[in-house]
Fold these 2 entries.
Entry 1:
Amino acid sequence: MSEATVKATFDVYRFDPVRDAGPRYDRYVLDLPPHTPVLTALLQVRADLDPSLTLRYSCRSAICGSCAMQINSKSRLACEAPIGPELARDGRIVVEPMRNQPVLRDLVVDQEPFWREYRRIEPHLILDPRHPMPEGTANPMTPAEVDRFKETPRCIACAACYSACPAVEADPAFPGPMALAKLYRFVVDPRDQGQQDRLVKIQTDGLWLCLRCHLCTEACPKDVRPSERIRDLKELAIAAQGATEPGSRHALAFKENIRERGQLNEMKLARQTAGLPGLVTQVPQGIRIWRKKPELLHAPHPIEGADQVEKIYEALDDGKTKEDAP
Ligand code: FES
């Protein structure tokens, strides 16, 4: 008995920067079983319909990370994205190259910006010869020390997180989620002697540009959870150096503002973040806000039940989870 198939419509981004005036979308229609991965479908397009379609892949098993692309606007590994759910949700499959990296041709991007940030964090052990070998073992790390890496060793460097990241798009100084997750991995490695240097450097090297949108964690096919490791890095950086940067001062001021009154006091937040000299530079912006929305510059009215917020903070300080808090 032959396998049931569905009619699958693919709209595939095509662009050759050398020859084309601009990008276009070519439509291909195939009959395929619904479990067919998008990558297999694209390879069939190339074999049967259009040998000029350019894409990158290798393992076809979600290991090498080379087939990452935009599938119906989400950064995915094409070799593990079956067509059935995509068609059921959107009726067709739009395939595009990854974002935040220049297109070389069709679905292939130049990954140099992604790897440049990776190299910048020195992604290798700077071995500390003083790290003791646990007694009676040939392994230089204990299981508890390995656990501190969390999910970071799962990363296959597919750049799906980098493609999904609006902070990369907004500011090229942001190193990107993968580089920061890798940085975390070395910062918590007890064998590494570059930890402090790495932490100090990253404070002024884009750590605080993260927008906390968690789109990287949503996009990661290996559940590395980069946004959570970025949060951990911020905590480690403050613990190592104090709140020396506008980003860290803003994070602490935000926390204390909410603790005090259950809401933000924008004026106070700006002063605590930028300091008085910094506030002076923001005067023109303040005047614009005052003209359009003067209420934003007033001290907020006290809100009922604000004392409950303090109890949440106390519970969190006690190491309890939010769910345990009153
Ligand atoms: S081809 Fe290797 S991860 Fe998809």
Entry 2:
Amino acid sequence: MLLAAIFGSPRKGGNTDQMAEAFLEGAAGEAGAGLRVERIYSRELRISGCLGCGYCDDEGVCIQKDDMGGVISLLDAADRVVLASPIYFYGVPGQLKLLIDRSQAPFMRKQLRAGQGQEVQNSPRARKGFLLSAGATRGKRVFDCAVLTSRYFFDALDIAYAGELCFREIDAKGDIRRHLTALDDCRRAGKEFVAADRS
Ligand SMILES: Cc1cc2nc3c(=O)[nH]c(=O)nc-3n(C[C@H](O)[C@H](O)[C@H](O)COP(=O)(O)O)c2cc1C
């Protein structure tokens, strides 16, 4: 099983990085040698914004050649995808949003294939996605936008949204370690996320 982890924070070693690592630890403990993990760090990639040019409407691929090509290959191959992101202005950080917007090309590729009566790639494998997030405030709706964006990102890639784990009042680097249950919750979620594949 291939589990791709997208680290969406610009802050290396920050709260959501730690949440993602705990989640991966839980997954590895459950799946053992049968699990391959690939980490994608949006902060390290050179990904241009979607141009809205419509090239992918006809071609199913993006006209721009940058690091997004490698990301799509990896996400195409993944059985599971976990997305970890802090909240920035009620949404996800810009670097991650660039990656998400560029999933328009694989979404259009799917539409084109469906239009040609071809089976959608990967659909029989019931791919699943999970969101991990943290924000500084206590706001009731602080995760609404990130959850919706993640849901539609996964949907574009033919990945079923399996759920999320979000923590409020997490701000300074390392705050997540001071939370009584957060990292254990992430470990448990990672374990369950890969265990589901065996049922
Ligand atoms: C530019 C910026 C915008 C932010 N906007 C929000 C926000 O709208 N709501 C919120 O609850 N926290 C906001 N935060 C706080 C982060 O979500 C919080 O510090 C989080 O724990 C960072 O996670 P990380 O360490 O994984 O980057 C913002 C932080 C930054 C740097």
